[in-house]
Amino acid sequence: MGVVSSPPSLFMLKLKMEKISLASQLLQYLITGLTVGSIYAMVAIGFNIIYNVTEIINLAQGEFVMLGGLIMVFLHVAAGLPIFLAFPLTIIVVTLVGMLLDRLAIRPIRQPSVLTLIIATIAASIIIKGIAMFIWGKDPFDLPAFSGRSPIDFFGAVIQPQYFWVIGFLIVTVVLLTLFFEKTIIGKAMSACADNPDAASLVGINVKQMILLSFSLSAAIGAVAGIILTPIALMDYNRGAMLAVKGFGAVVLGGLGSFPGAILGGLVLGTIESFGAGLIHSGYKDAFALIVLLAVLFIKPSGLLGSVEITKIKKF
Amino acid sequence: MLQIRKLPIIVFALLIIAFPWIARGIPGIGNYPDIMVFAGIYSLITIGLSLLMGYAGQISLGQAAFFGIGAYISSILTTKYGLNPWICMGTGMGVAVIVATLVGVPSLKLRGHYLAMATLAFGIIVYIIFNEEGEWTGGPDGMIGIPGLSLFGFQFNSVEKYYYLVWFFVFAVFLFTINIIQSRAGRALRAIHISEAASNAMGVDVARYKIMVFVYSAALASLAGSLYAHYLNFINPSTFDLFFSIKLLIMIALGGMHDIWGAIFGALLITFLSFEWLHFFEEFEVIVYGLILLGVTMFLPHGLAGLPDMVKDWLRK
Prior knowledge:
The complex is a heterodimer.
Chain A: H1 10-19, H2 22-54, H3 61-78, H4 83-106, H5 114-136, E1 152-154, E2 157-159, H6 161-183, H7 185-195, H8 197-202, H9 207-233, H10 240-254, H11 259-280, H12 285-299, H13 308-313
Antiparallel strand pairs in A: 1-2
Helix pairs in contact in A: 2-6, 2-7, 2-9, 2-10, 2-11, 3-4, 3-5, 3-9, 3-10, 4-9, 6-7, 6-9, 7-9, 10-11, 10-12, 11-12
Chain B: H1 6-25, H2 32-55, H3 63-81, H4 85-109, H5 114-132, H6 134-137, E1 143-144, E2 150-151, E3 154-155, H7 159-182, H8 184-194, H9 196-201, H10 206-232, E4 234-235, H11 242-255, H12 260-277, H13 285-299, H14 307-316
Antiparallel strand pairs in B: 1-4, 2-3
């Protein structure tokens, strides 16, 4: 399997960056931040889909991303499938994992409360992480970038072609989801469950199926995020928890349950992290997003675009 | 009024006192008192956590951070400034109380489970600080040469002496906590557990009691951290990571959230599992922990402490 000996071009990037001016450096941070932020946004959207239907904060959300990356590596690099086959196949496998998560860990709980459901997702996340360690070991894996790794020069900043794929996939995901929730009958049924599950089941919506669907959808989006992230940042079994926490940071920043909020939150969080790591202290790279999460919880828990009403009513 | 039965406490105390002698007599378990020291240290944390989870209905996913705060403050103040370890222990608890208030007040004033997320973020931030502030904490390598404990010239310099010291703390905290549960504050907590809205209507300051419990649990975790550092004489950040917080959660869930006995038994079981009985699984023990946590959540909502009642109900059917 394709164990990586040296991180792709990161060292070269660093060498190059020492020579360039502050303005282009700031531009570089912004571009990197928006790219990573797109990933956080996708994780955040995954959180919101499940939260809106079930009020569960699915702490295994990051494991979907990790699985997406590693399964894609297995299918594309190790098994040699072409991208256009490996990509959908990965999404299908991870979606199945999401369905299993609902059927094996969430639905069987006898006395569901927000507390026990959160604990169940924690349990599921460490099981998935353990199994991934069993299958792939501890080494990080690389995935070839979709259109090569020759960097593009943009006003002195370096853009990897993969960045465009990441941002492009975020846009595609958002457009497809919007169409799904607003135009299809199933999507509308899911929104109805989010508003009022009792009323939804009274008009004949199968709430259990909608919950299953929310887990599948959320797993699929997580898988996409993992696949497009791996060529930029590698992937290993242990990445899920941090991705989940940062994705949740994006959720809270944007406002729990809000889709535009998730996108805005993700992009802002990614940018803050990128500037913080570049300008303040790179060792604290992972801390910036979490400090933002804490600050938002303390100052404005409804987030940038969330409604205060929801914060008051919802159980989480 | 909640009844305390004195008999189980006395029996348990006698068992704990006799254990080192028993262990000496049985071949193959000579290292069990050593493991029991850790079990006792973890029990201190889980007692506080069970009050938080079982009575205030909140989870903390950052308890490892308070454990670490105690351990690091004790280590830094003793090795770098030569302060008396007992003073350091108190300082650590003081810092934990202040930090817990800062984290807890804003998140517990919100309804729901914001504390879970705030503590999760807080725990990871503290873990990063332990790793990054190498000048103070020794970075990823950790700190060595942390002195042991002594009292009026008596050195706690053997496993058995430390065993009795740690379990003395566990019993003191256990009795104190039981007294809290029986006091006015305890009645308020039980009321909150049954219905937050109703207790609010009866004039119970729900947020204030939740914050008190959270702060208390943080102070206990810090105390445990100091005891840990002075026992091992060595610490490094990996002890205080997110997985340790999750492990504490597993101890509580397994023992039973609504029962302080459960907190101690959960800590004992998981400590022995991780030190002795899961070696076979090596690194993959994390899967076993996950399965335990999931299984307990599904089938034993009240943990092992709830098992007798479940059996009784089942027999009655």
